[in-house]
Amino acid sequence: MIENINDLKIRQIQTGQPVLSPGYKDTQKNGFGDIMARTIEESKELHFSKHSKERIAQRGIEMTDTLLTRLNTAANSARQKGAKDVVVIGPDAAFIVNIPNNVVVTAINGNELKSNVFTNIDSAVLL
Questions:
Q1: pLDDT tens for residues 39-58?
Q2: Domain that holds residue 26
Q3: Do 65 and 105 reside in the same domain of the chain?
Q4: Mind giving me the DSSP string for 28-54?
């Protein structure tokens, strides 16, 4: 048991490691830096607006893990190039993505791709 603060300092100097008092919980994994890093990492993931979720369901677009990964990769590539509003075109569907907000705004299935005009788009990414 550490009697006083001087004993604590001496033990830290001798071992080179901080001496933890009984009952101390290691919070490094839940420290501010770790929480911030997790938050930043999660914010890089695309989110789907209510409208896009409805369109995906209405249009029968199958959202697989592979497609989601490819959409995230496409959005990150567009972000690195400075894009703001992107159409991501895949073999079976297209997605309009707002890059600054990481939001899929809407989705169009393959049948509708041929008859649509995309406006207010500054970039396109082909999957």
A1: 666 667 899 999 999 999 99
A2: 5-40
A3: yes
A4: GGGSHHHHHHHHHHHHTS-EE-HHHHH
